[in-house]
From TrEMBL:
PROSITE patterns (alphabetical): ADH_SHORT (PS00061)
Matches recorded under Pfam families: adh_short_C2 (PF13561)
Organism name: Xenorhabdus hominickii
Name of the molecule in the record: 3-oxoacyl-ACP reductase
Length: 251
């Protein structure tokens, strides 16, 4: 029960890692704000939480007014914010020329500007509570993927934003960290198909995809007092992918 009555905002909480994170914080006593665009998905997660100390707020993280409303509603209901989990994200496959600029803009607006927007509006309250931010970046922000230009650009920016914010707000008692998952089976990746998933298995030393609950556990750790001296870290949750220097496996 590390988060008894702590107010935790989780974006993209209607599926995948965000859903697992909402369930983890709820199990540990938190008041959970489920933020996302699709209220049907959010209401389903709400109904499966272990406690009814929760609130659904329809939010598009790419739109500033929508994020301001998310924060205002959270304060109106609960009076404080202790933890912000910037999890909402979109994936698009393709090199720079093969992705339409509209789609590319949407990826940057969600995966990067979304983190900026939510942090911007939540920070005044996090400064009061001496709270913590955990971003969901990716191993795609630590090194690049073939055919993932926009996604890698956004996630790389989130990785360095995490460091910059850790520097700027650490002295005011706020910790900012990120998780960097490799392949995790969620609605985002389930459509990849068996062949692509097998390629991933060949590159992941643990020989399997991650589970949303395994990323949620790391997010909860970074947000908790167990991580009280951890600030500015981009933690790979990757079964060992980033332990490789990229050279081929002959064994
Ligand atoms: N699944 C993986 O392999 C993997 C690996 C590394 C990082 N990630 C990151 O984890 C995060 C969660 O992804 P997931 O794998 O759980 O996929 P997911 O598609 O299940 O979850 C993403 C959620 O974000 C929501 N969302 C998208 N755009 C939004 C917006 N503008 N405003 C509010 N909500 C929005 C979606 O509705 C969805 O519920 C993403 O940031 C993703 O980039 C995932």
């Amino acid at each position: 029960m590390r988060f008894e009555n702590k107010v935790v905002i989780i974006t993209g909480a209607g599926s995948g890692i965000g859903e697992a994170t909402a369930k983890r914080f709820s199990q540990e006593g938190a008041i959970v704000v489920l933020a996302g665009r699709d209220t049907d998905k959010l209401n389903r997660v709400f109904s499966e939480l272990s406690s009814n100390k929760a609130l659904v707020i329809q939010t598009d993280v790419a739109i500033r007014e929508s994020v301001k409303n998310m924060v205002d509603e959270t304060i109106r209901h609960f009076g404080r914010i202790d933890i912000l989990v910037n999890n909402a994200g979109l994936y698009v496959t393709g090199d720079l020329l093969s992705v339409s600029q509209e789609k590319g803009d949407e990826v940057l607006a969600t995966n990067l500007n979304g983190v900026v927007n939510c942090s911007y509006f939540a920070l005044p309250y996090l400064l009061k509570s001496k709270g913590s931010i955990v971003n969901n970046a990716s191993v795609s922000g630590l090194g690049a993927d073939w055919g993932g230009a926009y996604y890698c650009a956004a996630k790389g920016a989130v990785v360095n934003l995490t460091r910059a914010m850790a520097l700027d707000y650490g002295s005011q008692g706020i910790r900012v960290n990120a998780v960097c998952p490799s392949l995790v089976l969620t609605p985002m990746t389930e459509r990849f198909g068996d062949e692509i998933l097998q390629h991933f298995d060949s590159r992941i030393p643990l020989k399997r995809a991650g589970k949303p609950s395994e990323v949620a556990a790391a997010i909860a750790f970074l947000a908790s007092e167990d991580a009280s001296f951890i600030n500015g870290v981009n933690l790979p949750i990757d079964g060992g992918v980033t332990a490789s220097n990229g050279q081929p496996n002959f064994n």
